[in-house]
Automatic annotation (TrEMBL):
GO terms for molecular function: lyase activity. The keyword tRNA processing does not apply. The keyword Ubl conjugation does not apply. Residues 79-279 form the Alginate lyase domain. It comes from Novipirellula aureliae. InterPro entries: Alginate_lyase_dom (IPR008397), Chondroitin_lyas (IPR008929). The lineage of its organism: Bacteria, Pseudomonadati, Planctomycetota, Planctomycetia, Pirellulales. Keywords: Lyase, Signal. This is Alginate lyase.
Length: 365
């Protein structure tokens, strides 16, 4: 697949979307199937982590849907998060194993929410929609394009839910918050755009990545070429949270023929290397900084959460892009991958997770 640089973005506007093409293409799905079928490592161990997770079970008990979900105050937010995780994980189990029971479970979850949800509410509604919405969209994309048996009317209803309930919450991102908020929004807007074939929505998200006014803009989150991040002075768990979402944005772009990964001289890689190095115990440079909101001023890098990789399984996707797709050295990111492999689930499903089976490719692209 030809990948367009930032200079070629305009020429990509007339191209049709690749399907499936949110987090995984047909080639990716075939790669995973072959890795598991042949028992290749470390992929098989990564698959076993996914397979054993309770939200990957075809016997998972669906908790929704409901007319309302929200955060602060919480309104069925745990049910929303759990079902989104289970929909995506069952969709991936279906794609990898071909077991129809997993497809049926994912479809059941998506239909339960798309037939009932009317509003996403609360002070943290952007996080509510942004964290789980990308998983609903990614699950729907896989089911739609893998002969899962999902009915056309149900697919149309899913499109409507994502477009009319999720996107209005997310489309203006979050210019009042730390960058992980807006990046949660940005990843889901991009995912919805692909699933609904909405070029205007997709281009809006890409433009925001390059030129947005808030902390989701690439150069506003990874603020300098050394890789310091907007939240590096806050704590390490939120820094990795935002970086993980930034990587998802780049991966969706890559699957649609845009090389967001290479923007600003591989700025995403710089952010990962800087953060990995610090969390592995190395010293890194730090410049005093104030974010775009003017509210978050940091004078030193934060030690809170340092070295806690267990809740942020975000490294396989980026490692495999830069190391194997592009042939670039990423020693600190590589060290983290080898330290925590195989990747498991993210804390409360904040991230896609399970990167060793879902994204590790060892140079097959």
């Amino acid at each position: 697949m030809a990948i367009l640089s930032v200079a070629s973005v305009v020429s990509a506007e007339s191209k049709s979307f690749v399907h499936p093409g949110i987090l995984h293409t047909h080639a990716d799905l075939e790669r995973m199937r072959q890795q598991v079928a042949t028992g290749a490592q470390p992929y098989l161990d990564g698959f076993k982590i996914l397979q054993k997770h309770s939200q990957s079970s075809s016997r998972y008990k669906v908790l929704g849907g409901f007319e309302e979900t929200g955060r602060k105050p919480s309104v069925r937010s745990s049910e929303h998060e759990s079902d989104a995780n289970a929909a995506y994980q069952n969709a991936m189990m279906w794609a990898i194993t071909g077991d129809q029971a997993h497809a049926d479970k994912a479809i059941e979850i998506l239909n339960a929410w798309s037939s009932t949800l009317k509003v996403i509410s609360g002070r943290d509604k952007i996080l509510c929609a942004g964290i789980s919405g990308v998983k609903f969209a990614a699950a729907a994309e896989i089911l739609r394009y893998t002969e899962s048996g999902w009915a056309t009317d149900d697919i149309v209803r899913m499109e409507s839910m994502l477009r009319n309930i999720y996107d209005p919450v997310l489309k203006d991102m979050a210019d009042f918050a730390n960058g992980n908020w807006s990046l949660a929004a940005l990843q889901t807007v991009m995912a919805i755009a692909v699933f609904t074939d909405d070029r205007v929505m997709f281009d809006h998200a890409v433009e925001w990545f390059y030129h947005g006014k808030d902390n989701a803009r690439l150069t506003h989150y990874v603020i300098n070429p050394e890789g310091q991040c907007q939240e590096s002075g806050r704590d390490q768990q939120h820094t990795m949270l935002g970086l993980g979402y930034l990587a998802v944005v780049a991966e969706i772009g890559w699957n649609q023929g845009l090389d967001l990964y290479s923007a600003e001289n591989n700025r995403i890689l710089a952010g990962f290397e800087y953060t990995a190095a610090y969390n592995l115990g190395h010293d890194v440079p730090f410049q005093e900084t104030t974010d775009t909101t003017g509210k978050y001023h940091h004078t030193a890098i934060a030690s809170e959460g340092r070295g806690r990789f267990d809740r942020r399984p975000i490294f396989e996707m980026v490692y495999n892009h830069y190391k194997f797709r592009k042939g670039l050295d990423c020693p600190y990111t590589e060290a983290v991958v080898k330290k925590i492999r195989p990747e498991g689930p993210g804390f409360k499903g904040d991230h896609i997770g399970f990167g060793t089976i879902l994204f590790a490719r060892e140079g097959t692209d």
